[in-house]
Design brief:
Structural class of chain A: mainly alpha
Shape of chain B: globular
Distance between the termini of chain A: 16 Å
Number of helices of chain B: 14
Distance between the termini of chain B: 78 Å
Oligomer: heterodimer
Helix content of chain A: 55-70%
Number of helices of chain A: 19
Radius of gyration of chain A: 23 Å
Number of strands of chain A: 0
Shape of chain A: globular
Number of strands of chain B: 7
Largest sheet of chain B: 5 strands, parallel
Strand order of the largest sheet of chain B: 2-1-3-6-7
Structural class of chain B: alpha/beta
Chain lengths: 477, 343
């Protein structure tokens, strides 16, 4: 069930209705849990067993950790949780690629290896990357004694499967969600009003901007094997930045809004990332919950910044490579991660250098230069994200530089250029205006009548300017 | 580099404190006014609701074929079947029967779909199969395979069906009138679109209002020229159905009959240049008459039934929506006379 589907509208209305009834809190939590499992089953019913299995393993592992003071036992239980969760994730996400690489490695060694099938064609369970990270954060936090093992299985199962954020985040921490389960939750009028607003905003980003304006142009440019003009390639590249942001931020915004309508607060995932001033600034504003997860559970355990420079560089690169690899088992995603790791290392060096410490970068022109440079860096790197293969990405890069196979024929009309550049510029401007604040603070300062007009415009656009509905880009992860 | 989890304030509830009830009420009223205004504008311009003919919508209706305890009439064929048959008239004339329109626009044979229904043990309704001679060729039987063999997610089918239902109520939901399409058109030509003379309904009927067509003669000429080229590629001297093909077809008919259903092949009207072209390439006596003598099913050719032959096609190929009620009534009467519909 996509958020922007009629099925989901009816589903959510039914869940909300039951949630608002004067029933015992445990029953209402059970309603949310049942709804979450039903939501997940709507994609592929058998995979709900995986979700349940992962939940049970981590529940019992954390429970046992909570009862044990023996460091070895606790470590063993943590390893059990890690191996189980990462093993499942690894199998479903990377087994096909591993088999392929194994066959290629055998070939390099002069041995012909024929796998039992050309590919295992393993279906990737939806949301596995997200809920795996979420449950792992629980067991790791219990191991580190940041939180106590939770007493209510109902609460924990709901934490793992909560449908607003189950499929594509935000990745919620147990310490953020579980305490909210202790008190009966009904949305306040402010939560409900704001939650509905966020749902409309999220739908607008996804339906009107991502699917309606950006995606058709991007899809036209990224047809594999078809040369495009340099102008088309540039518009396609920029369009994908807009599409990816609007698609993913749209989903996350809806998720936060849906949770609020049920009285739950989950963290925001984006904070005006297209107004970045550096690569690290970008990653502190884009998919923030993943960035935080990687920081807390990967970067810091590797040593973080508390090491010599070569080791810090190593920590940064490993973290970002795994970040890229988390998105998908392809060379493109690996490169995406590696490049971002290198950018962060270079940035760290530059910041400590005289050039990096110059006052110019704090001025408006300096910030404009920083933004332009970082935005272009992001846009070029995201070509790996969108291109089907490494060779396709290389072809796009060549075309962007006016080299390689290209054509003067334009697959895009003047309107397509406008449909990308105007919304993208508008988003960048809005991000710049709001980069030091939050959406909530901005709306708090805005008169209600103005926000009502904005809501009305977004609703009208959703109704009258719909694009061809497409799955959310981050569902593939 | 990264934001640490100590940035816990990011997840605290910071919902803005505002007059949300009034705000949402205003937003709702404003949206309704704007959407209503846009709808009124397009209606005044002469636009009607028009539902895109999608595979999901076709799949939605196909899934409903077996819902009426077997008393379902399935219409299959091409655009003539979509345009010439008025579904409400069928239901009025045959109370107790549900009607499902599965015809597909284009020059594709529906015989493969008929065979699929014959293999469906749950189907025991009536099939009205609209065909012309070229579509009886065995090599064409699987033309519509992309439709009847497609596997679409049930959720997606339901979603498109819901959207189609809304598109059937509101002219402004016509994809041709979406904001983006209008903007492109305005940038290219500086003009608003003109209403089309045909539209499709939620139940997949095609409605032609030829009074809105600006240049019927050029439509006729263009279509005749298209089909002249199409027919020029084939040079049949006779229908190439072999005995095995007739046997296969008759077995399909028998399977449906054995379950209490029936099959009728219907040749719907064409006129003017189109009829002349079709008769020149596929003479009725060589093709249709031979087919109907060998197939073990009811067959109705419009030329053989005076009540049907009197209808002329304004664009040479389809009836206007002002004639479909009368035509459908006459066709149902003829099929009833031939005992196609079991009591």
């Amino acid at each position: 069930m996509l958020f922007n589907s009629f099925d989901f509208v009816f589903f959510f209305a039914a869940v909300l209705l039951v949630h608002l009834l004067p029933l015992p809190w445990a029953l209402r939590k059970f309603n949310l849990l049942a709804a979450s499992y039903l939501f997940y089953m709507s994609w592929n019913p058998p995979f709900v067993a995986l979700l349940l299995f992962s939940t049970l393993v981590d529940w019992f592992a954390a429970k046992a950790m909570g009862r044990s003071e023996d460091p070895l036992t606790r470590k063993f239980l943590l390893l059990l949780s890690l191996c189980t969760n990462l093993g499942i994730l690894g199998f479903f996400k990377y087994a096909d690629t591993a088999l392929q690489y194994f066959a290629e490695a055998m070939q390099l060694l002069g041995t012909t290896y024929h796998p039992p099938a050309q590919q295992w064609n393993i279906v990737l369970p939806l949301g596995i990357s997200f809920y795996t990270f979420q449950t792992l954060s629980y067991t790791i936090d219990v191991y580190r004694r940041k939180i106590e093992a939770w007493q209510s299985f109902l609460d924990f199962a709901l934490f793992v499967s909560f449908f607003p954020q189950l499929i594509a985040g935000p990745i919620v921490r147990a310490g953020q969600f579980l305490p909210q389960c202790t008190e009966p939750k009904r949305p306040s009028i402010h939560q409900f009003g704001w939650g509905l607003s966020l749902i409309v905003l999220g739908m607008f980003l996804k339906i009107v901007l991502a699917d309606g304006l950006f995606a058709p142009t991007v899809n036209e440019v990224y047809v594999m094997g078809r040369p495009v003009s340099t102008g088309n390639a540039w518009v396609g590249m920029l369009g994908f930045v807009g599409q990816l942001y609007c698609d993913f931020a749209g989903y996350s915004t809806c998720a936060v809004g849906l949770a609020l309508c049920l009285g739950f607060v989950i963290p925001a995932n984006f904070r005006f990332p297209l107004a970045m001033l550096s690569v690290s600034d970008f990653w502190s504003r884009w998919h923030m919950t993943l960035s935080r997860w990687l920081h807390d559970y990967l970067f810091l355990p590797l040593g973080g910044y508390r090491r010599r420079r070569p080791r810090v560089a190593f920590n940064l690169i490993v973290t970002m490579v795994l970040c890229g690899w988390w998105h998908g088992p392809t060379f493109n995603f690996l490169l995406f991660g590696l490049l971002n790791g290198i950018y962060l290392v270079v940035q760290l060096r530059l910041r400590r250098s005289p050039v990096g410490r110059h006052q110019f970068w704090k001025t408006a022109p300096g910030k404009a230069v920083l933004w332009a440079f970082c935005f272009n860096l992001l846009a070029w790197t995201l070509v790996f994200f969108r291109a089907s293969t490494f060779e396709h990405a290389v072809t796009i890069f060549q075309t962007l530089c006016g080299l390689g196979p290209s054509t003067t024929y334009s697959y895009l009309s003047d309107a397509d250029f406008l449909f990308v550049l105007i919304p993208l510029e508008s988003i960048v401007i809005i991000h710049w205006l709001l980069r030091e604040t939050t959406v909530e603070e901005a709306i708090s300062r805005c008169p209600m009548w103005l926000w009502a007009i904005c809501l009305s415009m977004m609703l009208t656009a959703i109704l009258l300017v719909p694009g061809e509905p497409a799955e959310y880009v981050y569902f593939q992860f | 580099m990264f934001t640490s989890s100590s940035d816990a304030a990011s997840w605290q509830d910071r919902s803005p404190r505002k007059a949300w009830v009034m705000g949402w009420l205003c937003a709702f009223v404003l949206t309704s006014a704007v959407v209503g205004g846009v709808e009124a504008f397009w209606r005044i311009q002469g636009f009607q609701p028009d539902v895109p003919d999608t595979r999901e919508l076709w799949s939605f209706w196909k899934d409903r074929v077996n819902h009426n305890r077997g008393r379902t009439i399935v219409l299959m064929g091409t655009s003539r079947m979509k345009a010439d048959i008025d579904l409400q008239t069928v239901q009025d004339r045959l109370p107790g029967f549900a009607v499902v329109q599965l015809a597909i626009i284009g020059d594709e044979s529906p015989i493969g779909l008929l065979q699929q229904f014959s293999r469906d043990d749950n189907f025991h309704g009536v099939v009205l199969c609209g065909v012309v001679a070229p579509l009886l060729e065995p090599s064409r039987w699987n033309d519509q395979r992309d439709y009847y063999e497609q596997q679409l997610a049930a959720g997606r089918v339901r979603d498109v069906a819901c959207r189609s239902f809304l598109q059937n109520q509101f002219a402004s939901l016509n994809p041709k009138l979406s904001g983006k399409t209008l903007l492109v058109r305005w940038l290219n030509s500086g003009q608003l679109p003109e209403p089309d003379f045909k539209h499709q309904t939620f139940r997949r009927s095609l409605c032609y209002d030829f009074s809105r067509a600006s240049d019927l003669q050029s439509i006729r000429t263009r279509r005749a020229s298209q089909y002249r080229e199409l027919y020029a590629a084939a040079n049949p001297s006779a229908l190439s159905l072999r005995n095995e093909d007739y046997r296969e077809l008759n077995e399909a008919v028998q399977r449906i009959r054995s379950r209490g259903g029936e099959v009728a092949f219907v040749r719907l009207p064409s006129s003017g240049d189109r009829w002349e072209l079709e008769e020149e390439r596929y003479p009725k006596s060589e093709f249709w008459d031979r087919f109907s003598s060998k197939v073990d099913a009811v067959s109705v050719h419009f030329q053989n039934v005076p009540a049907l032959a009197r209808f002329g096609c304004t664009d040479d190929s389809h009836l206007g929506s002002d004639e479909t009620v009368a035509f459908t009534a006459a066709l149902i009467d003829e099929l009833r006379r031939l005992e196609v519909f079991a009591p």
